[in-house]
TrEMBL record:
Any GO molecular function: GTPase activity
GO CC, alphabetical: mitochondrion
Key words, A-Z: GTP-binding, Hydrolase, Mitochondrion, Nucleotide-binding, Transit peptide, tRNA processing
Residue intervals of the TrmE-type G domain: 234-402
Lineage, top ranks: Eukaryota, Metazoa, Ecdysozoa, Arthropoda, Hexapoda
Catalysed reactions, semicolon-separated: GTP + H2O = GDP + phosphate + H(+)
Origin superkingdom: Eukaryota
Organism: Anopheles arabiensis (Mosquito)
Name used for this protein in its record: 5-taurinomethyluridine-[tRNA] synthase subunit GTPB3, mitochondrial
Length: 486
């Protein structure tokens, strides 16, 4: 594995000689089956002491056995035992999985029993995965993908996390790194052997050309409109409009529960009310905002309107709700929308992020609705009262979400972490400094040591993403997001 080439022997030895750890890898609480994982050098002794098997179990084969307390020899439960000898295990160490009944008393007894073995302790959050990382089983992008996979709540999030956990993003970054390392090797070979005939004179131009290709790949990767991050964190969607147009009714309808208070009194919603929702497999954070209007003397409502405008500025998508009953003709609709946007303070950029929802369409005459439909197909007709038009609105929303987040099942892996984006920008800056210096300095004044310095910094930036540069602060933040048994 790529990571194995870079972690020093001392660090490896420290991890190899560390304590044996155990933890609950299944969900907490009463359940049918609880999976307790054990990893470390004491695993073989634990099997011998806690079971009465006549022969040692075969690797990766479930064995039904009685499980005893390691100290009192009292029977705890009858369950399955799986043995994963290192290095062919998740952590790279000797590993056991006990599949026992999920009662609280049984799990507690298992913990009490395992703690009696010398140098054996309960695992810290994420420690199993951390040991897998140190053993070279996965790099940091795969670790983060695994964490996202565990926390995925929608189908699209699952697909994106699975691709990252399987190493597709890692392969892309490792390929970039390989190209940079090859360029450094070529330039250093030119420095050391320029006077020999074994090194071609065009080796520098070829290296520069390859770096230009890496710069192009990085720019294309960064120019993703933050699709991966939106998909991972949720598409922030603001429901905006004038007072009493049905914004709170809309969030209640989409959420299928009473999230916001609905009354006939204008200005009922004062603060941002958020609700998380799954639309077509995409995560959406719906935000009900205060009705936008000018001239209110209510201090609390004024603060709510200010917060609403700030929320709209940061939103990825807007649902602009219009009271359809106030629209009489097609010509009036165009004028009304223009005046409506001006009143709400929405500029052209905000409107490009908006879906127009004509609420209370049940109050429209059939003739007016037909005229509006023929005039503009981008409107979504909806009645929060009767739920008419809801399927069509959801379909339009899904189409827009695909545009904002992409399709993780067919597209190349995208950036899903702000940490990745930061280091990639730093890498790009180093490569651009390399390119600018190489072209501006001229052949006679060019210091190739400075050239390779920029390239080495670029390599380090990628290493901070994949974990080939040891930065404990980064590791602690990443692994702390895991639960105890992972």
């Amino acid at each position: 594995m790529f990571v194995k080439q870079f972690f020093n022997t001392t660090l490896r030895q420290t991890v190899r000689n560390s304590s044996t750890i155990f933890g609950l890898s299944s969900g907490f609480g009463k359940c049918g089956v609880a999976v307790i994982r054990v990893s470390g050098s004491a695993s073989r002794a634990i099997i011998d002491k806690k079971t009465r098997l006549k022969s040692f179990p075969e690797p990766r084969r479930a064995v039904l056995t009685k499980i005893f307390h390691g100290q009192t020899n009292a029977m705890i439960d009858r369950g399955l035992l799986l043995w994963f000898p290192g290095p062919q295990s998740f952590t790279g160490e000797d590993t056991i999985e006990f599949h026992v009944h999920g009662g609280t008393a049984i799990v507690s007894a298992m913990y009490d029993s395992l703690a009696t073995f010398p140098d054996t302790r309960i695992a810290e959050p994420g420690e199993f995965t951390k040991r897998a990382f140190y053993a070279g089983k996965m790099d940091l992008t795969e670790v983060e993908g695994l964490a996202d996979l565990i926390h995925a709540e929608t189908e699209a999030q699952r697909k994106q996390a699975l691709r990252q956990a399987n190493g597709q993003l890692s392969c892309f970054y490792n390929d970039l790194r390989t190209q940079l390392v090859q360029a450094i090797a070529s330039i250093e070979a030119y420095i050391d052997f320029a006077e020999d005939q074994d090194v071609d004179d065009n080796v520098l131009s070829v290296a520069v050309q390859n770096i230009e290709g890496v710069i192009g790949q990085l720019k294309a990767h960064l120019n993703d409109n933050r699709r991966g991050e939106r998909l991972r964190n949720g598409v922030r969607t603001a429901i905006v409009g004038a007072p009493n147009v049905g914004k709170s009714s809309l969030i209640n309808l989409l959420s299928q529960r009473n999230v916001s208070i609905v009354t006939s009194i204008a200005g009922t919603t004062r603060d941002i009310v958020e609700s998380h929702y799954d639309i077509g497999g995409y995560p959406v954070i719906l935000g009900d905002t205060a009705g936008l209007r000018e001239g209110t003397e209510d201090v609390v409502e004024s603060e709510g309107i200010a917060r609403a405008r700030a929320y709209v500025e940061s939103a990825d998508l807007l649902l602009l709700v219009v009271d359809a009953s106030r629209v009489e003709t097609v010509d009036r609709m165009d004028t009304y929308l223009r005046e409506y946007m001006e009143t709400l303070g929405l500029d052209a950029d905000m409107m490009s992020r908006a879906l127009v929802v004509l609420n209370k369409c049940d109050l429209l005459t059939s003739g007016t609705r037909e005229q509006l439909t023929a005039h503009n197909h981008s409107f979504s007709f909806l009645s929060c009262q009767t739920q008419s038009g809801l399927p069509e609105l959801l379909e339009r929303l899904k189409t827009r979400l695909v545009q904002l987040c992409g399709d993780p099942s067919v597209e190349s892996p995208t950036i899903s972490q702000e940490r990745h984006r930061y280091h990639l920008k730093q890498c790009l800056a180093c490569l651009e400094r390399f390119r600018d210096y190489f072209h501006e300095a001229g052949a006679s004044n060019r210091d190739l040591a400075i050239v390779t310095h920029h390239l080495r910094n670029a390599v380090r930036c990628i290493g901070k993403i994949t974990g080939t540069v040891e930065t404990e602060e980064i590791l602690d933040v990443i692994f702390s997001t895991f639960c105890i048994g992972k």
